[in-house]
Amino acid sequence: MEAETVIGMVSIITAGFTIAVGSIGPALGEARAAAEALRAIAQQPDEANTITRTLFVAMALIESTAIYALVVALILIFANPFWAEFTG
Amino acid sequence: MGSGDITPDQTVVWDGGFVNVNLTLVTTWVVMAILISSAWLITRRLSTGPQMSRWQNALEVTVNALRSQIREISGQDPDRYLPLAGTLFIFIFVSGVLSIVPGYVPPTASLSTTTALALCVFFAVPVYGIAAQGVGSYLRSYVRPNVFMLPFNVLSELSRTLALAVRLFGNVMSFTKIVAILLSVAPLLVPAVLNALGLLTGAIQAYIFTVLAIVYIAAGSRAQRPVRRDAAGTSGATDPP
Description:
The complex is a heterodimer of chains A (88) and B (241).
Chain A (H helix, E strand, L loop, with lengths): L2 H20 L1 H20 L4 H31 L5 H4 L1
Chain B lengths: L11 E5 L2 E4 H20 L11 H21 L7 H16 L13 H23 L1 H6 L9 H36 L4 H32 L20
Antiparallel strand pairs in B: 1-2
């Protein structure tokens, strides 16, 4: 197999694995955060606004790692630096 | 943005040899023009009485909401941070909401724009910190709780700036990319739904960016003083008037 084929193949497979494995952790973390926030709102309904706002901020922070994995996967597929020398 | 581009940086609108104008610049200018012209038009004739134009009402609602958010999050006087935080929020929010216009790509879908915004926050932290506490006190905050934490504190500052930039870029770019790809796979309904989801995400990310910027800047400006307990048992760590 020539280098072009190997690079294309490995890039696609790696991109798939990156986003598949990289989104497991943040999904579990967000589920946990949402569950705790719902429990807190059930215990203190008056503070629902503060809790909801803090929940959104925490969700965005937890989501960041999944976004990093997604960016790496998209770069591998669309802006692959090693692919450019074959098509450029 | 075509389905082969990952950022609007790659779509060149005008090439002048040394300098070229790409789609990111054009959309940034469009957003700037809209914000500046609407701000100027609305504030030309301000009224202090109960009768006011609906646009002035909308502006007052926005500014009041921003100020109350800043006061709640930072616990300090909101007018110090309102220009920077308000501009960040309104710019990112409007550049996301305008994606309802066909043919428009948000400038925040480019890593250049989001890095520039994150660098604004990165430089604002020491500027506000030194203005609030003085150079010595601010630099001493890097060696708290002890001097071995100095590299970790510096590294955390750099990494959270990078996280700000990549989080906003990743969120906005992924939705524009998905819409561009789905236009060739399942047009008409599915891209429209995902465009709407992109609007929601853009608004939430604008809020997240602003909240994190306020948290970082306020944390850097808070005077680091130990909490003293006097004879009455109450803590004496109140800010001087």
